[in-house]
Amino acid sequence: MLYIYPRKRKTYNKVQTTIMSYNLLKGKKGIIFGALDEKSIAWRTALRCHEEGAQLVLTNAPVAMRMGEINKLAEAVNAPVIPADVTNMDDLKKLFEGAMAHFGGKIDFVLHSVAMGMNVRKGKHYTDLDYNFSQKTLDISSLSLHRVLKTAWDMDALNEWGSVAALTYIAAQRVFPDYNEMADAKALLESVARSFGYHYGVRKKVRVNTVSQSPVKTTAGGGVKGFDGFMSYAEKMSPLGNASADNCADYLVTLFSDLTKMVTMQNLFHDGGFSFTGVTQEVIEQMEK
Ligand code: NAI
Prior knowledge:
Elements: E1 5-9, E2 17-21, E3 29-33, H1 41-51, E4 55-59, H2 62-65, H3 70-77, H4 89-103, E5 107-112, H5 118-121, H6 131-155, E6 158-168, H7 182-204, E7 207-213, H8 219-222, H9 227-236, H10 245-256, E8 267-270, H11 281-288
Parallel strand pairs: 3-4, 3-5, 5-6, 6-7, 7-8
Antiparallel strand pairs: 1-2
Helix pairs in contact: 1-3, 1-10, 4-6, 6-7
This protein binds 1,4-dihydronicotinamide adenine dinucleotide (NAI).
1,4-dihydronicotinamide adenine dinucleotide binds next to helix 1, strand 6 and helix 8.
């Protein structure tokens, strides 16, 4: 029997929405990387996965945990928190070991919601990158997905038909000048998802995808120069408007569920139609003013 019960919850949308729970993740076990505070896409996704019946383990960089915010989420979703720096293979191994011990078995899904632009942070222009920073950026934001997948692969930690998703942005395909080095980082991230997705698909029927999300005002998102202008431009250029973090969480639930078993190695646009819109009436009117 399927129980469907509506729940009211706060969102960062303009309107409060009623979300239905469909038990789409009942019995599934997942690791969620990157919940920093309640605006984080990972935070919203953890809440949503919990509503859909998943059991979770949360993780973030040890330094990010000093804020202590994550403990609130851990309580809300009844999940342990295991610190791991995504650039450290020992941390990742301990994380997967800890998660499997907690679940008493293998893992069904992983959310990679991690990024850091070192040059962006230090105010370095794209034409004047510090390459030591660049290497760190690529390690944290892109190769980390390879590190996570390799750790799971070596430990055979994922169940067959497992699902791994990472978050990306359309600057990997089209130029957004202030997105800076993160455009390159996202292009590499999407490539890792495709390449590892092939091998994991063949070996274990595990699927790996990236979700290319609309701009959202979070700690990572807000770090991009001119973010507010960027966000309202995207809003006007998207027939459905910008997708919120809660919308993204809903979409990720479907990717972790059994309803998307044959979707792998894809970069999936979750952006209210932005990626396929040339121009909108609203933007034309703005230009004519
Ligand atoms: P956020 O700042 O809440 O999340 C980024 C997370 O990465 C933080 O929890 C941070 O602690 C973690 N992190 C950084 N370095 C780490 C390390 N060495 N080890 C482990 N974790 C580390 O911001 P948001 O927006 O939720 O970002 C999540 C993902 O979504 C990122 O990949 C971001 O690029 C992507 N994204 C964000 C968009 C936005 O407009 N906010 C749009 C499209 C994609």
